[in-house]
Specification:
Its EC number is 3.6.1.41. Keywords: Hydrolase, Iron, Metal-binding, Nucleotide-binding. The protein is mostly helical and 188 residues long. The protein has one domain: Hypothetical protein af1432. 66% of the residues lie in helices and 0% in strands. It has ten helices and no strands. Helix 6 packs across helix 7 and helix 9 packs antiparallel against helix 10. The protein is globular and about 40 Å long. The termini are far apart. The structure holds 2'-deoxyguanosine-5'-diphosphate and fe (iii) ion (FE) (3 copies). The site of one fe (iii) ion has 7 residues, from helix 5.
């Protein structure tokens, strides 16, 4: 409807064309995964549309939100790439009046993951890894696993991220380790 059109324009205005193409890819992949794994396609579409809303905000603006809105202060001592997810969840609440906590959580945790991820968390996070425009070492394996096993596919996505962070000498946010452990614990 109209509200979705308005949000689509507002999201597009927050980001360069390439990131908007990524967002459209995540929407398509998230709806497909929702169909495959019994998720809510409307929530998947909405969370995917909004997931990178704050991706291009200046660092100082994200930092201000983390401090003033009392988001987890621990974020400030990890990679700034993590910040747009919780900041984006706050921002879409403010900008669009989104109140659905499942949708907000899927946005909030789309980068880090978390322990005990919900189905919608997993769908959005995995769609972010496998949307058609993505290229990273291991993406084909993650796409293959995504056809048959949501948990193993997402764990493989986190493996790639963790390996990348280690190769750069960066710290790993604890929720990412918890997310991967939880996903692997769901196997046989
Ligand atoms: O926003 P996107 O580029 O679409 O993807 P994203 O939100 O999943 O962000 C991924 C980036 O975050 C990736 O380059 C790795 C970086 N990052 C930095 N520290 C961590 C982290 N990702 C995870 N999962 N955990 C971290 O500790
Ligand atoms: Fe993101
Ligand atoms: Fe991600
Ligand atoms: Fe993304």
């Amino acid at each position: 409807g109209n509200e979705r059109e308005r949000m689509m324009e507002a999201v597009q205005a927050q980001m360069p064309a390439k990131r908007w193409q990524h967002t459209l890819g995540v929407m398509a992949s998230a709806v497909e995964l929702a169909g495959r794994y019994g998720g809510d396609p409307e929530k998947a579409d909405l969370a995917a549309l909004l997931h990178d809303y704050a991706k291009y905000w200046p660092t100082d603006r994200m930092e201000r939100v983390i401090r003033e809105q009392k988001l987890p202060q621990e974020l400030l001592s990890y990679d700034k790439e993590l910040w747009h997810a919780p900041v984006g969840a706050y921002a879409v609440q403010q900008e669009f009046g989104i109140t659905d906590e499942e949708v907000l959580d899927a946005i909030r945790y789309h980068t880090s993951g978390r322990a005990n991820m919900t189905l919608l968390d997993k769908i959005v996070c995995l769609a972010d890894y496998i949307e058609p425009g993505r290229t990273f070492p291991g993406v084909e394996r993650v796409r293959e696993l995504a056809v048959t096993d949501l948990n193993l596919a997402l764990a493989a996505g986190f493996d790639s991220t963790i390996l990348f962070l280690i190769s750069k000498g960066k710290r790993i946010f604890p929720l990412t380790v918890e997310a991967r452990n939880g996903l692997l614990a769901m196997q046989g």
